[in-house]
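Lab notebook, bench 4. We co-purified these components, and the gel suggests they stay together. Before we commit to crystallization screens, I want a quick structural picture of the whole thing.
Request: model the full complex, all chains together.
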Amino acid sequence: GAVVSQHPSRVICKSGTSVKIECRSLDFQATTMFWYRQFPKQSLMLMATSNEGSKATYEQGVEKDKFLINHASLTLSTLTVTSAHPEDSSFYICSASLGRGTDTQYFGPGTRLTVL
Amino acid sequence: DQQVKQNSPSLSVQEGRISILNCDYTNSMFDYFLWYKKYPAEGPTFLISISSIKDKNEDGRFTVFLNKSAKHLSLHIVPSQPGDSAVYFCAASDGNTGKLIFGQGTTLQVKP
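Here is the predicted assembly.
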């Protein structure tokens, strides 16, 4: 299957700092990338949909100024958590697809963010 | 409002027996359904999917059944193996946006 990588896998930062998470599709070009977050023992919640070369579409309740998404190429999307606070601590997962409606999403391994 | 529900948070099965994981949805616009397997601190791995034009899809030990009238789908794993122990998420999509709505997950434990 297709491979999606995320970097870093774990990050610990101080409150008020910004953290950037990278998502790369390694062996295919991803027209669409998705960003999710998962709290312990809960479902994956979609944060935003990112299409290459255009602005991301955010889900209701997700602050676009806090979670900056850039999809500069067909193989790379980045999520920047700005001015992070302890409540932003979570497991962030990206996925990538070819972009057609029923295309399978391939998920990255996730990034564990801990904000002190 | 939880559009995709997995009402059983956990399931324990003996090795070699059948595992049946259930999922219900409320949005009749969903027309594509997927099952993902997830280990702790890892991203989900795609298992199997089904389109709403079908009622069954089989891939090796995994079979997904879809009952549209009941808005219910299930994943059957037979025979179950200890390596199948993980959290299983069902997800649904409307087929146009590509967005996936996930259920809460069911933790499957297969005992040797």
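Chain B touches chain A at residues 32, 34, 36, 41-46, 49, 51, 89, 93-105 (CB under 8 Å). Worth comparing against the SEC data before the next meeting. The radius of gyration of chain B is 13 Å.
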